[in-house]
Amino acid sequence: MRCRICGTANDRPALDLAAPALASTYEQIAVPTRVYVCASCGHIQSSDLPDIAEFYDTRYKCSMASEEFDQLCGMRDGRPIFRTDAQAAAVLGKVFPRLGAQVLDYGAGKAATLRKITAQRPDLVPHVFDVSDDYHASWRGWLPEDAMATYTVPEGWNGRFDLITAHYVFEHVQAPADIIRGLATLLAPRGQLFFSVPDCAANVGDLLVAEHVSHFTEVSLRRLVDDAGLALVDIDAGALPGAFTVVCSVSGKSESPVGHAQIEAAVEDARARCARLNKACRRLEQKMAANAARRSAIFGAGFYGAFLLTRAAAKPQIELCIDNNHHLWGTTLFDVPVRSPADLPMGTEIVYVGLNPGVARAAAASVPALQRPSLDLVFLEE
Ligand SMILES: [Zn+2]
C-alpha cells in the first residue's frame, strides 16, 4: 500500500489485528485492522475502508442523534468541555479573520462549530460543504441556500474564502494531499486553512478506528502542508484534547523542511506505539479467553469498550458495561447493557477497563465500585 502523504510503498503492517475492524459508529466491518508506518515521511496510516463513499453518505451519522448532541471531549475545573465549543475556541484563538470574512466549514457535518464561531463573530459570512445530504436540516434554519453545498464544491467558490476550517476531516480521506490542494484553490490570496486531526500519541485508540485511514504525526503534517503548496503558520498538539491543530496560509514562507533525524525519531516512535498496542490486544484476547468462565464487566462504554467487546470471542461472558456518562445508562453496547458503576454486581469477578490507556488508571481509581479488593482489574496496557 502506498503512503497517503509521500507515495512510498509500505508493505509490512506495524499493527495487525484479525477482522472485524471497528468504526467509530460501532459498526463492525469485516476487514482486518492494519496500520502501516511510512519510513520515508513518518506518516501512519490504515488500510482503505471498503465502500468508503457509501459509508459516509449513508452509514456515518456523526452526532445525528439530536440537534443538541455533542461529544464530550474533556473536563476543565469540574465542568464538561464539549467538542464543538473547544473547536470554536481553538479556531478563534488561532486565526483572526478580517471583518466580513468569507468562511467555509469543509466537511461541516451539522456545522455546530461554525455556528458557534459566527455567534461570536456575526460579521463573518459562513458557508458549509459535506459529502452527505443528511445535514441539510441542521443548515437550513440559519444559512442561505447558496452558502451550502454537498458532494461537489461550486465553481463560483474558487478563490473566495478568507478562512477554511476542516475539523477532523483529513484522517477520513484516502488522499489528503489532493483534498488540501483542492481547498487551496478555494482560498483568497491571503486566505488561511485551519484544520484539526486526531493525535494518536495522545490517544492510541485512534489507530483502531476503522474509518480513520490516516494517523498524522507532526512530521507528516508538515510534509502534507508543504506538498500542497501552503505555508505552515502554526502546528499545536495542545490546543484541543487528543488532537493536532494546524494553521496554514496561501502566502508566506514555510519554515525549513523537516530533517531526516526528525523523521527517523517519528518512525521509531510510531512503530513502538503500534507494537505496544498489538501486544496489548493479544494479551487482552488471551486474558478474556482464559477468564471466560468468570463473571465479567467492562468499564467504559465508549469506543474502547466497544473495541473490547469486539475482541471478546465469547461475548456472553461480559454481563454489563459500566460508564460514568449518565446519558449512556439504560442503553446497550452490542446487546450488553450499560449501567452506572454503582450497579456493578457484587458477584462480578473481573473488570476490563475500556478507556484511553493514558487516562485509564486514574479514571478507574476514581470509581468507588472498582475498589473492591476481590475485583480483578484488567487494563489494555500493562
Ligand atoms: Zn510517506
Description of the structure:
By secondary structure, the chain is an alpha/beta fold. The protein is built from nine helices and 21 strands. The chain has helices at residues 52-59, 83-94, 112-120, 136-140, 176-186, 218-227, 260-290, 303-311, 357-365, and strands at residues 15-17, 21-22, 28-29, 33-37, 44-46, 72-76, 79-82, 102-106, 125-130, 148-150, 161-167, 187-198, 214-215, 231-236, 243-249, 296-299, 318-322, 332-333, 336-339, 350-353, 376-379. A seven-stranded mixed β-sheet has the order 10-9-8-11-12-15-14, sandwiched between helices. Strands 18-19-17-16-20-21 form a six-stranded mixed β-sheet. Strands 1-4-5-13 form a four-stranded antiparallel β-sheet. α9 (357-365) links the parallel β20 and β21 (376-379). α2 crosses α3 (112-120). The site of zinc ion has 8 residues, from loops.
